[in-house]
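User: Just a sanity check before I run the rest of the batch. Below are the structure tokens for the first item. I only need the designed sequence back.
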């Protein structure tokens, strides 16, 4: 079977995720459960779309080596897709990767490159990108998926997630979106503003991220924030930006679980906290139909957000009970 036919065969398993609707804070909240995607997260959508388009155009052949800098869900999605297609994938990761993800990458990929030198901002992103560029120059038939700058990242959200949300949530009034590469925000906001301009789009970022021109500061939660302004942000149309602290994300994850029984990752907790803050200061009513995504499950955060000892670095234990 050709790579293209193989991709067609699993296409229906990515996207069309369910929405769980709950009544909280005097609003109707629709929670898009993105961890139901085939390989476990929202990043299955852009990883699949980028590879799909490159296979379709002939840019990727059976001997192409796929290279990407990611320590998170994007690497896991790419590793699974490349393994399925019989393609070599080299993920470039850093020491902040969680141990289960590293183990899975080592199982699925013959080569995993770990960078250990911090860049000028104190993070690893710029070092990882330099490593990707060096690997690409060494592999003559290589393809850098480049999630930060590839339009097929945000276009998959424009084509799928944005349309799905509009179909699944009648009377939609607000959408809250976590930001890292800006792909979700750009694609979703473009689709929603085109079809229903009255919907308010709220971007949620973490303290210390420079995406929305805040001063840089160390960040300890993966999945949201960035140490550079992502080029895809230029396609986004948003009305408001909220920043949440590490403490607030810890609270948000627990509140999300206690209020809805959804056990989700850091960006979900961040967005839920953003919604709680927003509706504590703005008038709410059952006429407010609010959408958020849960990009991944809480399992990958057992050593961090769901580990009281780790959380104690940010806030006191007695406030951390309940799960
Ligand atoms: C768990 C999680 N949430 C949110 C995001 C942010 O998505 P985007 O890169 O589209 O801004 C990511 C991206 O990696 C993620 O892994």
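Assistant: Here's the designed sequence for the first item:
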């Amino acid at each position: 079977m050709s790579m293209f036919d193989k991709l067609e065969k699993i296409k229906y398993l990515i996207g069309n995720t369910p929405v769980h609707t709950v009544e909280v804070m005097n609003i109707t909240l629709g929670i898009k459960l993105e961890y139901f995607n085939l390989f476990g997260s929202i990043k299955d959508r852009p990883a699949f779309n980028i590879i799909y388009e490159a296979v379709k155009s002939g840019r990727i052949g059976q001997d192409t080596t796929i290279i990407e800098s990611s320590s998170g869900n994007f690497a896991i999605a790419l590793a699974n897709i490349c393994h399925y297609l019989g393609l070599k994938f080299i993920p470039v990761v850093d020491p902040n990767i969680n141990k289960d993800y590293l183990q899975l990458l080592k199982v699925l990929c013959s080569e995993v490159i770990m960078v250990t030198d911090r860049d000028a901002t104190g993070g690893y992103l710029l070092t990882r990108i330099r490593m990707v560029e060096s690997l690409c120059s060494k592999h003559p038939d290589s393809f850098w998926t480049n999630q930060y700058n590839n339009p097929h990242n945000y276009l998959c959200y424009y084509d799928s997630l944005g349309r799905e949300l509009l179909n699944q949530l009648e009377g939609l009034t607000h959408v809250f979106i976590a930001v890292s590469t800006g792909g979700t925000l750009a694609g979703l906001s473009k689709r929603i503003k085109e079809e229903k301009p009255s919907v308010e789009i709220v971007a949620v970022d973490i303290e210390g991220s420079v995406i929305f021109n805040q001063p840089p500061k160390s960040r300890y939660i993966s999945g949201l924030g960035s140490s550079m302004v992502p080029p895809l942000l230029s396609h986004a149309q948003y009305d408001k930006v909220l920043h949440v602290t590490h403490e607030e994300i810890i609270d948000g994850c627990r509140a999300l679980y206690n209020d809805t029984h959804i056990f989700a990752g850091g960006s979900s907790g961040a967005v839920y906290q953003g919604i709680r803050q927003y509706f504590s200061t703005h008038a709410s009513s059952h006429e407010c139909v609010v959408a958020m995504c849960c990009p991944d499950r809480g399992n990958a955060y057992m050593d961090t957000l769901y580990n009281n000892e780790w959380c104690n670095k940010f806030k006191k234990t007695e406030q951390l009970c309940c799960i």
